[in-house]
Amino acid sequence: MKWVKKIVFLVLVSLVGIQFFPTKRNQNTAILTADFTKTFDVPTNIQSILKTSCYDCHSNNTNYPWYNKTQPISWFMEHHIKKGKAELNFSEFGMYSKRKQKNKLKAIVNQIKEGEMPLSSYTFIHSNAKLTEQQKKEIMNWINTLLR
């Protein structure tokens, strides 16, 4: 029984201790000229959907929830954001080659069609980011017009 108390104590001390190791924040209020919304003439409704459902993980400006300052949650979030931006960064979309842009647009359509984006782990907490069937159609139809 004494060892259980020691383990619980060590876990608590560890949880408190890791709070002193902050993560980098993905926040930049400037909208680059290479931003997706400046690269293409994006309709307002599509912009709204993308900003709500995609930009937190796929841009240079994340809107952080209140719980993001708690470790290990913020480490988990930082990892997801870093991975998301490496795959697709809407803030830097205009810097991609035309070929890469086209491939990314196709990938966006495929990810939405397959229900792979936004991630269910994200929409579980951010229910407003979940795409309706109508929103999916709007995005895919609009992107398909760009691909013609």
Describe the structure.
The protein is mainly α. It has one domain. 54% of the residues lie in helices and 0% in strands. It is built from seven helices and no strands. The protein has helices spanning 2-17, 36-39, 44-53, 73-87, 98-113, 120-123, 133-147. It is elongated and about 70 Å long. The mean pLDDT is 82.
Quick description:
The chain is an all-alpha fold. It has helices at residues 2-17, 36-39, 44-53, 73-87, 98-113, 120-123, 133-147. α5 (98-113) runs antiparallel to α7 (133-147).
Oligomer: single chain
Q: Structural class of the helix and strand makeup? A: mainly alpha
Largest sheet: none
Q: How many strands?
A: 0
Strand content: under 5%
How many structurally independent domains?
1
Euclidean distance between termini CA atoms: 69 Å
- In the predicted model, the low-confidence regions spanning at least 5 consecutive residues are none
